[in-house]
Each structure stands twice: as structure tokens, then as C-alpha cells.
Amino acid sequence: MKIRTAWASMALALGLLLAVSACRATEARPSPTPSATATAVAPAPTTTPAGVVPAGQTLTVPAVVNILRPSVVHVQTEAFQLGFFNQPVPVTGSGTGVIIDGQGHILTNNHVVEGARQIVVTVYDGQTYAAKLLGGDVFTDLAVLKIEATGLLPATLGDSDRLQVGDDVVAMGFALDLPGGASVTKGVVSAMGRSIEESAGITIDNLIQTDAAINPGNSGGPLVNLQGEVVGINTAILEGGQGIGFALAISQVKPIAAQLIEKGFVSRGYMGVRTASVTPALATSYGLSVSAGVIILGLVRGGPAEAAGLGVGDIVVAMDGQPISNTARFTAFLASHQAGTKVKVEYYRGGRKLSVDVTLGEQRR
Is 35 a known active-site residue? Predict the structure, then answer.
């Protein structure tokens, strides 16, 4: 479907669409084999549970790493590609995941495991487990795996809505599939609410931009604040860029992961709009009537929003009475409402507050 856009100068200034290459690393090597008796490495350190740091206080980077390292896992995959003579040739790949509960659920990127015939997860103590793919979502590049294991140490998921540009963050993952455990890099939150267009033409919204180094193999690993909480899932790097990486905001990840665990797929409402978060700075620069919400930058022809009469430049501030202060809340609202649901959308147009009922469509690949 074609997207009709306006406010081109704003979109350009915001840098909403960036060409990216997904963080993938594949190489021809022997396929990993699950084993319950792998040689153990150093035991997991005794840690303070994540999320118990008093408000306003931060940990050192080594302390953050000690908290998260037992929750970060190595994800290895095997798939088949056709060789020169059309014969199936095994190809292996590598990525990262993060344990989110004691039942063995693991978050990673969809592109890490999509099409894999075998998935093997190596946990902190060196043991390997065959993993089951519960489901993946191409629109957020998120997937959930499950392993049958006991004694797992899950990470604490934080609140990415509380992040601010300039906050310190730590990225962890099995960069370049190097031996010896997960790599750690430190940086800051460079921007919020970024959108990138993947090679398949799918746009992933509401990304955290960071200068913490993210390399192939980091895909699916956690982006962590200095309270030891996961605030993002590393997903992409800018092709040809230096010091520019992206992570899925954890506030958007949570409802998606819940659906993947429950039913193996994501049923989400769809409005057919391209949006950006309204900030006080943006409102001042462009003379907007409100300082929070999501501004519509583009409409899908014939989509639910256009059919309801919404237009480019409208600023959505609430849906069914729930405040919509940024793209994270907008995306989370749609993810929690199925196609066919009628929702009341409150918005500003030219300084006037209006409302309209929108019947959500279904987002398709």
C-alpha cells in the first residue's frame, strides 16, 4: 500500500526513516548440538536482584553487568540454503537473547530465528538447551523462545517511557559470535521514537537510538539502564553509520511478548498512519497546540484513520480515554486492541480539540 505523506520538512528534520541492515551474523561452521552436560564455566555471581536500586540512584557499569550477565544467553541457529547445484547446505547463525522469567521464556529478535530448523540456547553456566520458537513478529522484529530448564535467573524489565535523551545505557550481547561470553558496551540514549525501514519494506517504529556499540551477533540482547533494568532489545545498526544503533523499547515489547507467549502470534489493531512523538521542543519549533501526543505524518490510502476523517498534522492525545503521550503508548494501545474494535480517538487540529470513532483494521505482513 502507498503511504501519502506531508510535512516533509518535519519528517526530514526528525530523521524518521533510516536505511538499516539487521544485525545478523552467519558463517559456515559445525551446527551446535544441545547438551545437558556441557562443561560449566565460572558460576553465576551472587547478585542483587535487578530493580531494587532506590529511585534516583545508579549502579556502576560492572555492577550492572554482574546483575544481567546470568540472564543473557547465546542463541545459535541452523537453517538450510540451496547450494550451487540446488542442494541443501546447512547455514548457521548467531544472536543473543535475554531470559525474562523462571519458566524459560527468552526474548530475542525475529530475524535471528526466522526460518531456523534448529535453535540452541547456551546459558551463563555453559549448559545448552534445545529451544522452541513460540512465535515471532516481523513488525517489531521480536521473537520469544522457550527452554526447559530450572534455576534460571531472569532479568527485570524496566520502563522505557522513563528514559531521557542522554541517559547512560549498557548493551550486552554475543558480538561477532566471539568466544568467551557476552560483550559489554556503554553509551547514552541518543534519541527516542526513531523509525527505521527494514529491507523487506517493513517499518519498525518507536526505537531507542544509542551510541553504545551494537554489532552483528548483538541482535536480541538487552539494552540496560544503570538501575540494572532492561529498557530495550537491541535490533539494528545503521548501514554505513558510526555509533548509531537501535533497540526496541521495552514498553512496546511487553505486550507483544505476552501475545507471543499466549498464542504464538500478534493480533494488533491497525490505523494506517505514520506518526512521531510530540515533544515540548518539537511543539515550540513548529508551533503545535500541545506538547505531548503523537502527530500524524502520513496516512495509508483507504486505511482506518483516513476513512474516519483523520488527517496529516492531527495530534492524537487519547484513545478510549487513555492518554497517548508518545509513539510508545500509541503502539502499545494498538497492540492490545484487536482488529474490528471501535475506539474513540481524541485529537487536536488547528488548536481545536476534536474526537472521532475509528474502527481498527488488521495489520498484515
Answer: no
Burial of 50-68, coded b for 16+ CB within 10 Å and e otherwise, reads: beebeeeeebeeeebbbbb
> Taking a C-beta distance cutoff of 8 angstroms, is the pair 254, 157 a contact?
yes
Q: According to the model, what pLDDT value does residue 103 have? A: 95
Active site residue 111: yes
Q: What architecture is domain 24-42+58-155? A: Beta Barrel (2.40)
Q: Which three cell numbers stand for residue 29?
A: 561452521
Q: Which of 66-80, 89-103, 109-123, 228-242 has the lowest mean pLDDT?
A: 228-242
Q: Is the pTM of this model over 0.90?
A: no
Contact 44, 125 (CB under 8 A): yes
- Active-site hit among 94, 219, 251, 277: 219
| 101 catalytic residue (yes or no) | no
Q: What is the pLDDT of residues 31-73, one digit of tens each?
A: 444 433 332 333 333 333 444 576 678 999 999 999 999 999 9
Q: Are strands 230-238 and 222-225 parallel, antiparallel or unpaired?
A: antiparallel
Residue with cell 550477565: 69
pLDDT-derived band of residue 82, with 50, 70 and 90 as boundaries?
low
**Superfamily in which the 14-21+159-255 domain is placed by CATH:** Trypsin-like serine proteases (2.40.10.10)
Catalytic option among 74, 105, 111, 337? 111
